[in-house]
Amino acid sequence: MGACVLLSAPGVVMAHPFFRTNAIWALPKMKMHGRTVTSTFAMADAVVPTPPDAAVVVVYGRPSSSNTQKVLWALHEASVPFTLELASALLGPKSQQFAAEGEAYGVVDTPGYLAMNPTARVPTLTDGGFSVFESNTICRYIAQQHCPALFCGGGSAASLAPAQQAATVSTWMDFSLDQNGASAVSFGTLAEVVTRLPEAERGDPETLAKAIGAAAKTIRVLDTRLQAVAAAELAVPFVAGPEFTIGDVPLGCEVTRWFCCLASAKAQGFTLPKPVPSFPHVRSWWERLRERPAFREGCGLQEAAHHGVDLDAV
Ligand SMILES: N[C@@H](CCC(=O)N[C@@H](CS)C(=O)NCC(=O)O)C(=O)O
């Protein structure tokens, strides 16, 4: 392991129990693909004073990844300062996913990263000496550790036991992951066929129709859920009740991808299935999400930029 140096990154300070001792472990920095990133999985041998600008939370990921966006959005919602370290096997600054010449961010295939996240995927989050992967688990961790209110659904959910509230919130997070992971053709395929493939290979009508059909199946369930919450609570609905929770984040990212991809596909003149299903409850829920500064910072603006569309005109 290299020489021990202070963990430091510009402009980030936070209160965390790990640091209230007024001491932190000196953390080694590792060279990963020619870039220096801070590694938190190996403890060093010295205890040093907390630097005033210490970055406690670090996210490894890429802003065009919906799973990374969940984490960035959750951190903004919880007002947790963090540093983003760009990491990916696939997409780098100038690359398209399948462009042979595309330069990947790297990092994910290094021993240091694999020790934190053996799947070699993004995102991973480190918080002091603790690391966690799987985007939904990271979001739950952020809420539980840094902003427990994000687990309270309000309304009828508020009368539930804490474990039941958490289960209600978690259901919609896991539903999102299951739908996206179980279907070989879904939101990720939409992003590929609309944006990530080299220009000449984009817009295949059959692939587009399949991806739109699969994504619509997920969004239809959400539409029904939001309608049911609105009826039960007599309030504007979020997935777990009349208040925003961490449960809105994963589906919010997928729905953002849906709207941005459709807008980009239309702008590129691609042939879309007719009619593209419209989901009024999801649409108005998403428009409410779009007003949240944390959503815009962590997810909306990143995804819109990825697809070359204006978030407010989508
Ligand atoms: N279930 C995992 C899935 C992680 C995943 O598939 N991440 C994608 C990005 S959304 C990835 O790492 N792709 C390869 C890469 O970018 O290097 C999670 O939710 O964190």
Question: How would you describe the overall organization of this protein?
Answer:
The protein is of the alpha+beta class and 314 residues long. It has two domains: 4-145, Glutaredoxin (3-Layer(aba) Sandwich); 152-313, Glutathione S-transferase Yfyf (Class Pi), Chain A, domain 2. Helices cover 43% and strands 11% of the residues. It contains nine helices and nine strands. The strands form three sheets. A four-stranded mixed β-sheet has the order 7-6-8-9, with helices on one face. Strand 8 (124-127) and strand 9 form a beta hairpin. Helix 1 (66-77) runs parallel beside helix 3 and helix 7 packs parallel to helix 9 (293-306). The radius of gyration is 20 Å and the shape is globular. The termini are far apart. 41% of the residues are buried. Residues 1-53 have low confidence and may be disordered.
Query: Order of strands across the widest beta sheet?
Result: 7-6-8-9
For the record, the CATH class of the largest domain is Mainly Alpha
CATH architecture of the largest domain: Up-down Bundle
Instruction: Give the CA-CA distance, first to last residue.
Output: 48 Å
The tally of beta strands, per DSSP, is 9
Which regions have little confidence, pLDDT < 50, spanning 5+ residues? 1-53
CATH topology of the largest domain: Glutathione S-transferase Yfyf (Class Pi), Chain A, domain 2
**Structurally, how many domains make up the residues?**
2
Radius of gyration: 20 Å
Q: How much of the polypeptide forms β-strand, as a percent range? A: 5-15%
Global morphology: globular
Number of helices: 9
Helix content: 40-55%
Biggest sheet layout: 4 strands, mixed
Average pLDDT, rounded to a whole number, is: 80
- What are the bound molecules? glutathione
The string of secondary-structure elements, in order, is EEEEEEHEHEEHHHHHHH
Briefly note the structural class of the backbone: alpha+beta
